[in-house]
Each structure stands twice: as C-alpha cells, then as structure tokens.
C-alpha cells in the first residue's frame, strides 16, 4: 500500500503535517508517533497492515514537518491531546481508531478517556493509555517547575539552529535513541531535519526536551479513575525489551506496567487484549513484521465498541 498524500492541516499557530495511506472512504486510523519522533516512524508498519483502512500519521506540533508552537506557549501533554481533536475535526472524523507508539500511545489513551465516544479501537505500542509512574509522585512539582524554567531559558538564549553534517546528526541521534537501528534512524531524520547549504539542522522545537517536563504523570487511583471512562476496545502490544518507566533509569521497575495492565484487564474485561512481542521499544520500526499480524487481526475483528445512543 503506497503513500497517497502529504497533508497540511491548518491550526491557529500554523499547520499540523501528516501523511495518508489508503482510500478516504475506508475506516479511519490515526497514527501517533513517539517522543521526539515523527510520522515516518509508521512507514515500515503501515504497508503490512490491512488495505481496507485509511491511515493518517500526524507530526505532533514542534515535531517533524509541523509548525512550532508560538513563542511563550509551552508543550504540555494536554496540548498534544487537543491536537488529536483538531486533526479529527479537520478530517471530519466523528469516530476512528488510534494507533500510538510510546508517547503517542499516552496521548491517544488520554484522548480516548476524554472523548470516549469518538474512539472505536485503541492500539498501544509499548505504552499505557495514561502515564502511570508510581515512583514519580514526589517529583511532579519539581518537574513542573523545571519545565517552566527550561522554556524561559531556551527562549532567552535565542540560539540559531545548529547545522551539522548528516553523518554527525545520525550519530547524535543514535546515541540518544539507542533502541533505533541505523536504517530507521536515517528514516526518522529524513522528516526530522532540514537541508542547508553546509549540512542539516533539526526541525523539532528546542523547547521540547525531557518527557517528564511534558507528561501528565498520575498515581494508581487516578489511573483507574481515568480508564473507567474508556469505551474503546484496547490492544496493548508490549515489547519484551521495551520501556517500563518514564525515567529510563527506572526501567527495571515493572510495577507500573503490571498494575496498569491488571487494572485495564479488570476494568475493560473482554475489551482489553495484551500481547508481548520480542524486541525493543522501536520494534514496530525495526521489525514491523513482529507486530503487524496482531494489529491486523485486532483492526479487522468485528466486535466493535458500543456506540453511545
């Protein structure tokens, strides 16, 4: 299934860029990329998925080819959730499925809690639908403070974007994203950089750095409260060598994932499906064939979520 078109959807601060595959008449699936990635992260997976769907992969604001937020406006989790609503409105979608990797899964999950009647199926790739991290409760206010200070600091510095050779950029990217293979790294940078006379520079907004500056992290009680609102059917695809915590140094601690998974199972019952696949956090890019079959059967399964009257 070939790429049909590149899209530019107007928003008050500029545009949201996206790419689309499949017929406009088919059932819609919105694909949400991970932290500091872009829509290219689905290029190897979507051709392996069923042809009878219309797939749109968007670049979040400040990522890929999408406009940066206006000066003075920070990037918070809720803003990205709001972007999903804007994209759905621009595409005139009232009900659709969501496929989200990592950060994109948490944005899609939160959207599904806030607008439950709009989401038919939710596919989470190595992500819980809401950011649950029981180790982080004491740090939340510190993170909020650092997020505000970081934005002020970047805006005050006004440094121009750094131009480096494509090879330097790739090495920097792979060092900071050790789970991404070289071929996939190059592919993400195609959409994530702009060519200049002497090299390339990163497209993404420098105000976006650490995930904890942006994520809405919740404790167990709020997690359960949120997921009770879900009406979608959910497929959670967990990579065996994937991430388990927001802060990567806590990665060995699987308590949050275990609690989140068991809560989803007890709240959603037969609407929840959990599958483990071998591979790391970027398995959908590095080895898309390992996740394509389970996603395909889930998308094609006839049980639909109840449509509210």
Fold and architecture overview:
The protein is α/β, with parallel strands linked by helices. Helices cover 34% and strands 23% of the residues. It has an 8-stranded mixed sheet, with helices on both faces. Strands 7-10 form a two-stranded parallel sheet. Strand 8 and strand 9 (199-202) form a beta hairpin. Helix 1 crosses helix 2 (103-114), helix 4 crosses helix 5 (182-192) and helix 6 (220-227) runs parallel beside helix 7. The longest helix has 18 residues, at 140-157. The mean pLDDT is 92.
Primary descriptors:
alpha/beta; eight-stranded mixed beta sheet; single chain; two-stranded parallel sheet; about 300 residues; 9 helices
Distance separating the two termini? 35 Å
Across the major sheet, the strand order is 1-2-4-3-5-6-11-12
Category from helices, strands and their pairing: alpha/beta
In DSSP terms (H or I, runs of 4 or more residues), the helix count works out at 9
Q: Strand-residue fraction? A: 15-25%
Element pattern in H and E: EEEEHEHEEHHHEEEHEHEHH
- Which overall shape is indicated by the principal axes computed on the Cα atoms? globular
What's the short story on this structure?
With 309 residues, the chain is of the alpha/beta class. It has 9 helices and 12 strands.
Lay out the secondary structure.
Layout: E1 3-11, E2 14-21, E3 27-32, E4 53-58, H1 77-90, E5 96-101, H2 103-114, E6 119-125, E7 131-132, H3 140-157, H4 166-176, H5 182-192, E8 193-196, E9 199-202, E10 217-218, H6 220-227, E11 233-241, H7 255-268, E12 272-280, H8 283-286, H9 289-300
């Amino acid at each position: 299934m070939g790429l049909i078109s590149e899209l530019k959807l107007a928003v008050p601060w500029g545009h949201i860029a996206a790419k689309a595959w499949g017929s406009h008449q088919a059932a819609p699936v919105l694909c949400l990329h991970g932290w500091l990635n872009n829509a290219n992260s689905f290029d190897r997976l979507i051709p392996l998925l069923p042809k009878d769907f219309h797939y749109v992969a968007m670049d979040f604001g400040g990522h890929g080819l999408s406009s940066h937020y206006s000066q003075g406006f920070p990037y918070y989790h809720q803003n990205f959730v709001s972007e999903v609503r804007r994209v759905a409105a621009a595409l005139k979608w009232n009900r659709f499925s969501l496929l989200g990797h990592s950060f994109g899964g948490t944005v899609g999950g939160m959207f599904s809690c806030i607008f439950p009647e709009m989401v038919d199926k939710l596919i989470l790739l190595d992500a819980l639908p809401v950011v649950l991290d029981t180790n982080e409760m004491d740090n939340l206010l510190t993170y909020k403070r650092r997020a505000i200070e970081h934005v002020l600091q970047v805006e005050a510095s006004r440094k121009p974007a750094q131009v480096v050779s494509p090879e330097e950029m790739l090495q920097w990217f792979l060092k900071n994203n050790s789970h991404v293979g070289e071929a996939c790294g190059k592919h993400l940078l195609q959409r994530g950089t702009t060519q200049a006379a002497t090299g390339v520079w990163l497209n993404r907004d420098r105000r976006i750095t650490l995930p904890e500056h942006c994520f809405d992290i919740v404790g167990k009680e709020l997690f359960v409260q949120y997921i009770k609102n879900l009406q979608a059917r959910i497929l959670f695809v967990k990579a065996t060598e994937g991430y388990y915590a927001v802060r990567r140094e806590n990665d060995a601690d699987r308590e949050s994932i275990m609690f989140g998974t068991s809560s989803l199972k007890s709240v959603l019952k037969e609407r929840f499906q959990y599958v483990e696949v071998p591979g790391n956090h970027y398995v959908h890019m590095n080895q898309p064939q390992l996740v394509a079959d389970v996603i395909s059967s889930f998308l094609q399964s006839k049980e639909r979520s109840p449509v509210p009257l």
